[in-house]
Amino acid sequence: MNRNHLIGFVAAMAILALAAFALSLLFEIYPRTRYISPSSEASANEYLAMERWLKEYDIPVRTVRLGDFSTISEAGERHILIQVSMFIWSEEAEEYLGSWIREGGHLFLVMDINQDMVQNFISREFHIDIRSPADRGAFRYNADFPNYDQRISFEVPPDNEAVLLLDPRYIARLVQVKHGKGTLTVSGRPFFMYSRNLEMAPNARLAWGLLAADTAGTGADTVADTAAAAITSGAALPGEGWLFIRGNMRPQNDGILGTLFNEGNLAVLLVSLMVLLIVGFWAVIPIFGLVRRGRERPGKPLRERFLAEGRFIKRYGALDFYRDIYIKEINRRLARKGISSDKIEEEIRTIQGENVKIGDFPGIIKTLKTILERI
Could you report the per-residue pLDDT of 275-330, keeping only the tens digit for each? Predict the structure, then answer.
């Protein structure tokens, strides 16, 4: 091995060792929590965790973005969640829902906006009145209670055997009424079912009790207790699926680019791209430095080149090539000047018709040159 190369290698290794030692003294490696934004699917669907949770216990969930009478009349599910603003309400749909609940259907209405038609429907059929508290801004979060929608509350008459779920200020935020063989559940926006809130025990118990455990009409305390027992034992209602008629918060960004920018690590992509560009340029661009010039060999004079060409043509008996060039040029000049070329063509034919020897070829060319000069 070359001695200079060996010395350079040892020096480089020593510098790297000193740099590693200095970095270990000056810097400290410690874990750091990094926030990762939700995926496109999770951002578009607030109920994603709830839906996956139900499917794990063999409770299928089908989602429809916009519904009407035909949607619910053709549905095979016995449990339906309707976001009020995403449903086209009609008298026909209200009559069908009333009879459908009496026959054993379970309807969950999410009052994201207060529609007069829906308020009249639940007030007339189920005796539930909707109120909007004037002091909703005074609410303070309590970890022992589920996340309710504070902009809406409910009232029922004393003789109505309904389940009322209260917040810390004893205001009814969710109501469940038994109607025939089925039930109607009404709430504001179900924050307790959102993916970001399901990790809290009160929200998980309430969501599971409403969507998976058969606790209708047994009282608020029993709802929570039965839901907790169902979570522990896995006593869900297998096979009884849900139909969700709801909208997305925002459209999903599908495709490889959307997945990459929402779920991938952009920093790794940029670093990889820079490394690829550097390696590519390193392979394409030549090494910088002085170009070693070789000794230029002088070219042959023009006369020698023509002589070599003539010898080559003479060897194969093709000296007429030169004569044809002169004859074409003579004809071209005569045609441009409009001069009769009978005598000249006769003279050219005479020259061409002669049995010229190889030694006379220069004389023929000289004659053609003389003719070309006189034109």
Answer: 888 888 777 766 655 556 666 666 677 778 777 877 887 787 777 777 778 778 88
Q: Quick one: 236 and 312 in the same domain?
A: no
Question: Which residues in 258-279 are b (16+ Cβ under 10 Å) and which e?
Answer: eeeebeeeeeeeeeeeeeeeee
Please name the helix (run of DSSP H) or strand (run of DSSP E) that holds residue 21, with its range, or none: helix 3-26
Q: Which residue, among 182, 110, 199, has the nearest Cα to 148 in the 3D structure? A: 110
Domain extent for 320: 304-374
Locate the DSSP E strands across the chain: 61-64, 79-83, 106-110, 129-131, 153-155, 162-166, 172-179, 182-187, 242-245
- Domain contains 259: no
Positive/negative CA dihedral, 62, 64, 65, 68: negative
Dig out the tokens for 238 from the structure.
Answer: 């297998």
Rounded Cα distance, 155 and 150, in Å: 14
18-75 pLDDT, tens digit per residue, is 888 888 888 777 788 877 777 777 777 888 888 898 888 888 899 998 899 999 999 8
pLDDT digits (tens, 9 = 90+) for 149-170: 888 888 888 877 788 888 888 8
Question: What is the CB neighbour count within 10 angstroms for residue 98?
Answer: 20
Name the token pair of 214. 């058969």
Pair (165, 56) in one structural domain: yes
The strands making up 242-245's β-sheet, listed across from edge to edge, are 61-64, 242-245, 79-83, 106-110, 182-187, 172-179, 162-166
Tell me 65's DSSP state: S
Number of neighbouring beta carbons within 10 Å of residue 362: 9
Q: Could you please report the per-residue DSSP string of 164-176?
A: EEE-TT--EEEEE
Tens of pLDDT, residues 325-358: 877 888 788 777 776 656 556 665 565 555 445 5
Query: Whole-model pTM?
Result: 0.56
Looking at residue 233, its amino acid is S
Residue 163 dihedral angles phi and psi, to the nearest 5° = -95, 120
Kindly state whether residue 282 falls inside one of the protein's structural domains: no
CA 199, CA 189: separation in Å to the nearest integer? 18
